[in-house]
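Extended Data, panel c. Modelled sequence:
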Amino acid sequence: MRVLLFCLALLLGACSPPAKFNGSDLKNVDWGRELALTGHDGKPYGLGSFKGRAVVLFFGYTQCPDVCPITMGGMRELMATLGADAQRVQVLFVTVDPERDTPQLLAQYVPSFHPSFLGLYGDSAMTAKVAAEFRIFFRKQPGSSATSYTVDHTAGSYVFDPAGRLRLYFRHGETPQRMAQDLKRLLAGE
């Protein structure tokens, strides 16, 4: 009887649906596979540059008044929440404002949130290509002068597993704790 109950428990466990992630599941999308930009350190990067690490990818700009600094602060909190696992996670900040976000500015801004964070940039054409690949919306909104504009942009973050596959999307405002739960699962091979 015990053997029968044990086998029944195993069978029921095997039939249960896989655990759900907090973020939106993107594992079956056919986009978000290409990224070729330059880091604020002057080196070229693609998604393959980070194999073996989970990657969190956010599109923003350094002069963003609210969403970007809030998101980057949340990424800093995410790294603290991950503890030792943070060493296996790379946060990437891709600028959607290549006119103003110079490598020098990105090198000051991005690591100010965490020393391991990397800012990525390209010229206008490269930025548009990467944004299209990731289904990112961005558009300049005029300001009081030619250089005081803002940029409306998609505010979520993408997550890649350590094998380099796009897996999740987190909407703006997702808590670092819930993101950390998902990242720990991806780092464990789920």
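The two ends are 33 Å apart (CA to CA). This feature is highlighted in the accompanying rendering.
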